[in-house]
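Marked as duplicate of an earlier ticket. Keeping the data here for the record.
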Amino acid sequence: MERMKPRFFEPYHCTILRIPLYEIDIGGGVYHGNYFHFFEIARDDFFRHLGFPYKKLVDEYLMHLTVAQVTCTYFAPLHYDDMVTVVTGVEELRSRSIVMVQRIDRKELDGAITVCVQALFALVCVGGKEGRRVSSLPEPFRNAIKKWLNGV
């Protein structure tokens, strides 16, 4: 399997986080599954930045974005109290789905940036009473993303 290389992309949205103690495993680093908590926090922050909080998607449109596929590559471990930046971008926007790329970077004491982990998320819009029906992304949500991608 070929290892995904770190990607640098524009435009991007940054979310700054401090690694909390409860995300750390017995080995002293962030448990591999817990990185997804940071990605989720950053995606939520990104949607808020667009003026389209996830709660709006759920409450007003009765829609959810469900993870259909994820690819994640770990480059360097994170530890308790690390200050990190979660960089979020949109790789592809379709009528019913969005592919997002997210990267967690740590700034070292000498100012260098270490790419720690990167993931690609394919998110599919689902709706209906039980959230089982693939649906089109709400047009206002798609427009907010398009506007952001075009730098408007």
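See parent ticket for discussion. Residues 44 and 54 are 6 Å apart (CA to CA).
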